[in-house]
Amino acid sequence: MKRTFTFDEARKVLPAVRERTRRAIARIEALGEPWEAPAGPEARAILLSWAREMEELGIEVKGPGLVDFDSGDGYWCWRWPEEALDYYHGYDEGFAGRVRIQ
In this structure, which long-range contacts are made by residues 82-89, counting pairs with CB atoms below 8 Å and at least 24 apart in sequence? Predict the structure, then answer.
């Protein structure tokens, strides 16, 4: 379910995103796997389940622990373990082009 978010809407969803991400990472690490690149089938299934949860919220998954909230003009960008939604980038810039939100 793709959707667009105002900054305030994205900020309101972020605590749920952080908690679900924290839980998925803890489960993967409990298996002795690196959460950024799990190799085992159980760990990969956990990561895939996390990605589906994010997509059900309308959030685009860009990598393990990395998500974008579509603003209609670009993306509000968040990466684990950031505490807040502090970055933005245009559609073409990607993660490398993200800038701190003023």
Answer: 84/11, 84/14, 85/7, 85/10, 85/11, 85/14
Predicted model pTM: 0.93
The model's pLDDT over 60-94, given as tens digits with 9 standing for 90+, comes to 999 999 999 999 999 999 999 999 999 999 999 98
What is the number of helices (H) and of strands (E) in the chain? 2, 5
Measure Cα distances from 13 to 3, 17, 45, 57, 76 in Å: 13, 6, 23, 8, 12
* Contact status, residue 13 vs residue 5, Cβ threshold 8 Å: yes
- pLDDT 10s digits, 30-62: 999 999 999 999 999 999 999 999 999 999 999
Helix/strand/coil for 81: coil
Name 100's Cβ contacts closer than 8 Å, sequence gap at least 6. 86, 87
